[in-house]
Amino acid sequence: MKDASRESFLELQKFTKLYASKYFLLVMLVLCLVVLILPNLLRNNPFSIGEESFYHLRIAKDILSDGFLQYDELSFSGRDTFLERGLSYSIASVSFITKISVETSAKILFLLLGLFAVYLLHLIFKLLNLKEGLFALPVLIISPAFIYLFTVINRYAVSFILLLLLVYFFLKKRYYLSGFFLLLMPLFSYAFTSFILISGLFYFLYKKKSKLLLIFLFLILLVWIFTLKGFNLEFISDLGGDLGLSIFGIFIVFVGLGFFWKKKRFISLYLLCLILFIFYLKLYWMIFILNIPFCLLIAYSFTNLLNIKWESELIKELTILLLICGLLLSGFSFVKSLSDAEPTEEIFDTLSLIPRGSVVLSIPKNGYWINYAGMKNVVDEFVWFTDFEERNNDIETLFWTENLNEVVSVLDKYNVDYILLGSVAKHKILAKDEEGILFFLKYSDKFKKLKEGNIELWRYVRE
To answer: Which residues contact residue 396 at a Cβ distance below 8 angstroms, ignoring those fewer than 6 apart?
Structure first.
């Protein structure tokens, strides 16, 4: 048993030397390249993944054609508010310089951001003397949150890079550079910026040993977080969560708790994970930050599993192999789910039947795709809008009412020309095919059905 333990120690030493070498970083970058290319490579259509992606791509196209934008004619049928435009300008800049499409430019940009993130994390782990970074980096690269962050076009990827740069230069005690990257962050995400400022305040109070004030402010923040609407309860990616943690990773972290419960350093890391997880339940983008300490805990647990004494070397090796395979399975099953994600070609084939500039009513999820195709939507998922509550209530009334006059009133109020619903969306809104607006779509002469199938389209016939 002593020989086995010594063997494990020698293996760990070899891995540590590898971690210190330039080849480890090269291997990690190649792994990252492969993992981030796969979702788009496996897709059976040329479209980007997700909903918000199409907002940034559309705004980038508008920037290239019109320059600085002050009004969005398509979202909510016209608005003067925008999501943070830093990402759209970045995509437009890459497209302008390379002379390639905004879609391809965005994919290249996000791939480079992912590779740069791995490089920065490698530097930060070395600065912190985290030898477990040897295990943490590959675990992080194949984690669902990392794959999503640098595959799906979203406004948090650049903010994440800026956060890593801020941390790196803070550790190097180049505070003016950290401040510079903090100043850039609001261009890409107000939420990320707020998190960094609040974290900075907590760090300052911690250093000043103002524990009572720190606890008081934390409790206020916690109460405020729980006043926000909604819960991200599907937090396990393997069980259908859109953006969550690996179930094998969670298991490994809980196993590690048995090793670390007496060690203050690791208990602090577990506590940090718990706090970030609580915030993640209300703010889904917190998963990108939570993912780093979570992967470090997985790495620490692996290290201890290699070092502890086992009754059987065979059981040890099989257990380690099973856990590694589980993490790989979580990562690559998420890659497959992303490759199958909407939008499908059928959605854009259907939208191609509608004249550009028309007003299309659909569920909020379809709003960005409608805009990307050149039509106005009534609602989308960007809810910072002055009359959002009124509009949302009107649409809910329209979907559920049994009064045709109410349907006509709402459609006329928002100048709706077409109604687009997917078969899945229909049954999420209404339980039966002849319930609410679906009854009028089927039987009223005010609606003409233009397309059947998974995506259905009706034209509203005005008098």
So the answer is: none
